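G., before I forget:
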Amino acid sequence: MSPKTETVRHDAANEPNEKIVLRVTDLKVVTNAGDEILHGIDFTLARGEILGLVGESGSGKTTAGLACMAHFRDGLKFESGSVSLWPRGDATAVEVVELDEAAVRALRGSRIAYIPQDPALSLNPAMRVGEQIREVLDIHQFGSSEAERTERVAEVLVDVGLPGDKDYQKRWPHQLSGGQQQRIGIAMAFAMYPDVLILDEPTTGLDVSTQSVVLDTIRQMTVANNVAGLYITHDLAVIKDISDRVAVMLRGDLVEEGPVDAVLDHPEHEYTKMLMAAVPDLDGRKTIGDGAAEAKTAPEDDDKTHILVSTGANGSAAGQDSADEDSTAESGAAAASAGAAGGGAASADAPLLEVKDIALAYGKAQILDGINLVLEPGECTMLLGESGSGKTTLSQCVAGLNDDYTGSVRLRGTELARSTRKRTNEQRVGIQYVFQSPFSSLNPRRSIGQSLTVPLEMSGDGTAASRKAAVEEALDSVRLGRSFYHRRPGDLSGGERQRAAIARALVNAPSVMVCDEITSALDVSVQASIVALLRTLRAERQLAMLFVTHNIALSRHIADNLAVLNKGKIVDYGPTAQVLENPSHEYTRALISDVPKF
Amino acid sequence: MFGKVIVRRLIFSAFILIAVSLLVFGATLLLPGDAARAILGQQATPERIAALNEQLGLDKPAWLRYLTWLGGLFVGDFGTSSASGGSVAELLGERIGASFILMGVAAVISVPLGIGLGVYQALHRSGRRDQAMTGISLVLAAMPEFVIGIGLIAIFATSVFQILPAVTLAPPGEPVWNRPQQLILPTLTLVLVVTPYIVRMMRATMIEVLDSGFVEMARLKGVPEKRVIMRHAVPHALGPVAQVVAIQLAWLAGGVVVVEFLFRYPGLGQALIDAVTYRDVQVVQAISMLVAAVYVVVNLAADVVGILTNPKLRSAA
């Protein structure tokens, strides 16, 4: 058991005062096996304020949030400490963790409400949405009559910005979009006018524009109902946007706490500083992941990135100027301009990768509609789009994993067959794919070495010894080291697994790497280190990259060119700085304005 | 919308039954042995065989016989038993009732019992009781029905206690339910065979559902535990379990043969065994079609349950 770390406090807001609704003192939670998960944390929630609880996966932030409701997930139990709640109007506190089951149930959903991470999983798929809200009211016997409850359901739906009519209440969860589902979750939480709200990453699964709507709803409802909120997230940008105070968690300890501005602008704890440095900013004022990049990354390797970053900061810089002038804002002509922006390397020769007029439709649904892209060696194009925009489908078409498209993909001027099966070995090796989730893309039963050898066996050259050497070299180049050869994915952290997956794409020395949302399953600090790794690889190997993501904030940190995909069409395409500063399309402008400012 | 799905499934089921009828008829054509020769036995002369064949309609081409037979099925005419000379429908009438009683009682007991025990185990997972029940259900599931039947006879009828009849006592013609005690052992055998599978499946799906986000959410809404289980968890576990229940109930239709033979129970199973012995093709065909019909109906019912418990299927269909 590790000793309790002293929390850095920025002010005295935790001293007893009449605004406090919930106080957690020296809370310890252990696993059934006896390992301590929370090492005694303290925080307070005040009426009308939101406390942001930040931490990376596994830091215990959800455990802390659920402990406020006296809920401990399977395998965890309460050890010691206190959670005191002052329910509306009461002068005396209730000890939540000491209550019996019935009393806890009476508090849950009525005095302390919970808004879960993934609305798609947390709404009962076999219950109509109105009924699910109504259930809370029925259980806690809201009001005095049936009619009053019915009225309240409609009222709270309107409050969160949904239609409150009977037809809407009769919908099933699967008939709503992600954002609407989450607003049902919020309506459910606010139905009983609770005192405390526990929000467990409520916007993590949502697109930026949906996220900004949901955050608005939450902020409005919190203020209107004078509720104390605990907002759990790993996203510092969201914290800055929504909360009044912030507490930073590290491995079961609270390391820093105070008003948002004080903590984020003048972090005192090392960990907070590290977190702050890892958050990608849209303006690209800093280079994320620099600290994480290993010694091998000589400073000159990063030059290119620094130029990119300084371009972002100053608005224009040498090298980008010509591109800015050459290119027109029209997306149709943007392909040509991107080619020009990619440098003079491809003057006479065909570009490394050229995507022309790719279109794909399933029945009436047009998934992709006339996509044009050009990629030169050592260049990175970010393909930005929300879920359902067709970005993954497009990258699969490029890699040959989806052969239903029309149009052409050319590698060094040669048109590729639609399906990987029909492409030549050389062409297959030329384009490699890295998948979104490192947790499911590596076979858990094979050692990393075995998984990485497969591409070499498929391409069929070399001896066993030379393959092993190639794999070890790839492991070196992703900064994992040879010792990982015999380890299995289960022993690795998320970041290590994603490095292994990148190494698998690298063993055959491809010229193009397609990265499909490869950082979205990872924590910010890990994301920063992966981004730094990709930068290094580009410089070392002249690797061209198609970086697919929904996170616009990463754009200046990784990409030379930015292509914005909306409903199967590229609506904006050009050098990153130019697209961000002068977006030509309404959709791009909306995306940029919806990003939580950091 | 929902009705449309059912109608479509019904039409599909009709096609399956017609396909089965073709197979059954084809298979009986291929069977070695000659009905007329079997009936006449010692007295078979070529003339008498020819005469009997004509009388039974066996001299007509196969496709004509098939169509006549199929047409008969639609109006409830299953043909004439070549062994007894009486109508098949009459011969089977009582036995169908007797068999369905056995299967029905077994189903009514084992389905709720299986679901209940599965839910109980899932709620007390990895406890001592859960482990004991898992062990018992595994042993039961591994034992063939005749072993269970003989074991029960040894315990309750002969060696240990002599409290229940080992065989069916009712004389021919008397309905079996007039003496309920003779139903106990055959029913119990079927229940013990069918229930373990349902328990195991229910336990597995229930554990999955209990771990899902909406069950945790229901608890965090303050929903009482009983309602969490009955209203939020169980309905989701029923869909997949319905398929297993259907397979088990369909198995009952065939498994009943062995059990009936064991307990000398005057049902379809006995009739089938007798019919096979006497080359009574008409009866074999009729029983095969009945068993096939049970399979189709039970599976259709399982699909309906699956659709009812999943609004996504209900509204998308």
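The mean pLDDT of chain B is 82. Chain B has 13 helices and no strands.

More on Monday.
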